[in-house]
Amino acid sequence: MIEQSNSTGNLPDFATELVPDPDQTALAAGVRLGPYKVLGTLGEGGMGRVYRALDTRLERAVAIKISTRRFSERFVREARTISALNHPNICTLHDVGTLPSGDTFMVTELVEGETLRNWLSHSPGLERALGVIRQVVDALSAAHKSGIIHRDLKPANIMVRFDGYAKVLDFGLAKRMPGSSGAPTATLGLSVPGTIIGTVAYMSPEQLLGESADARSDLFALGIILYEIAVGRHPWPRPSAVETTQAILHEQPPPTGAPAELDRLICQCLEKAPARRHVLIFFSKKRPGAC
After folding, report:
1. Each residue of 192-213: pLDDT tens digit?
2. Which residue is catalytic, options 152, 170, 214, 218?
3. What domains can be seen in the chain, in order of their start residue?
4. 86, 105, 161, 272: least CB-packed within 10 angstroms?
5. In this structure, are residues 100 and 13 in contact, taking their beta carbons and an 8 Å threshold?
6. What is the pTM (predicted TM-score) of this model?
């Protein structure tokens, strides 16, 4: 993957009382970023750390996500993408800013729950799981109608609240579809043709080949998630990214054993050729029964 360096624009500076770190600014409990008081760490990954915090003005809990410097541009693009989307199943953006260290942060709603991966480990049952996926489909539909594709849909980027409400997170790899319109602040597309961007296990064949992706790439990822719900494992479980790539490109998924209509939908989503991936009529709200 090739990282490009472009201006991220001017963001407000809210940081005080920072705890230094050689790679990325780390925040200790009690640190304040303007009106936000850090309460503790929620998690961290390759692109940054996430903290639980309190918005002292409104007395509400929020999440603060801080990027590592090498991902700061992508981070700002994520913030602009989320701000361009207004949907109850997409995480809400409250604020953005920069630290004196140069790290970028965003403040979002705090989703009290667990990732879809963890939630499914409790064996919630097919109908409940499909109820969550219907909400994910609604979120994707809203993004696609706005001309935005997620490009990194996976169970780790879907949160299920304790009341069963789903939220799609992490639009850091999102891209505006060719030919779509939108405000300049939401214009994406800084990736380089021929590069692979995303999580290999949930990428479509066209993404793995470095080709142009559109909304049908998100459908392929959704098909993999549906397969995992129906079968309990990934359709192409392989020990390495190279082997997973080859399997996605050249092998058909094993039969699901799922009810016929669900099995048909999964097969349609997992078609190698984007043109053969069909609209998700199965998830119409007019048809609440899953199977």
Report:
1. 444 456 789 999 999 999 998 8
2. 152
3. 32-109 (3.30.200.20), 113-283 (1.10.510.10)
4. 86
5. yes
6. 0.81
Q: How confident is the model at residue 45 (pLDDT cuts 50, 70, 90)?
A: low
Give residue-wise pLDDT tens across range 53-83: 999 999 999 999 988 777 777 778 788 888 8
pLDDT of residue 279: 57
Mean pLDDT across the chain: 81
Give the Cα separation of 114 and 116 in Å (integer).
6
218 is an active site residue: no
Residue 205 is encoded by which pair of tokens? 């064949």
Looking at residue 181, its pLDDT comes to: 52
SS (H, E, C) the chain: CCCCCCCCCCCCECECCCECCCCCCECCCCCEECCEEEEEEEEEECCEEEEEEEECCCCEEEEEEEECHHHHHHHHHHHHHHHHCCCCCECCEEEEEECCCCCEEEEEECCCEEEHHHHHCCCCCHHHHHHHHHHHHHHHHHHHHCCEECCCCCHHHEEEECCCCEEECCCCCCEECCCCCCCHHHCCCCCCCCCCCCCHHHCCHHHHCCCCCCHHHHHHHHHHHHHHHHHCCCCCCCCCHHHHHHHHHHCCCCCCCCCHHHHHHHHHHCCCCHHHCCCCHHHCCCCCCCC
pLDDT band at residue 161 under the 50/70/90 scheme: very high
Length of the chain: 291
Q: Which of 253, 51, 78 is nearest to 152 (CA)?
A: 78
